[in-house]
Amino acid sequence: MAEHEHGSMDTTEQEKTFAGFLRASAWVAGVSIGILLFLALANS
């Protein structure tokens, strides 16, 4: 078994995935807030 070298793993794909997750989370939060504001203004 090869010795593990700390910090030698390529994390480019994980960083892209996490950035996409944060972008999607921000969109979902924004849309949710927009829907809640619409419902509040429409007296639903």
Characterization of this structure:
The chain has one helix at 12-41. The chain is mainly alpha-helical and 44 residues long. The chain is rod-shaped.
Number of distinct helices: 1
Number of strands: 0
Structural class: mainly alpha
Q: Looking at the structure, what is the overall shape?
A: rod-shaped
Secondary-structure element pattern, one letter each = H
Amount of helix = 55-70%
**What proportion of the residues form beta strands (DSSP E)?**
under 5%
Low-confidence stretches: none
Average pLDDT reading: 92
Q: N-to-C terminal Cα separation, in Å?
A: 63 Å
Cα radius of gyration in angstroms: 20 Å
What is shown here, in short?
This protein has 44 residues and is an all-alpha fold.
Write the layout of secondary structure elements.
Blueprint: H1 12-41
Which features would summarize this protein structure in a list?
44 residues, mainly alpha
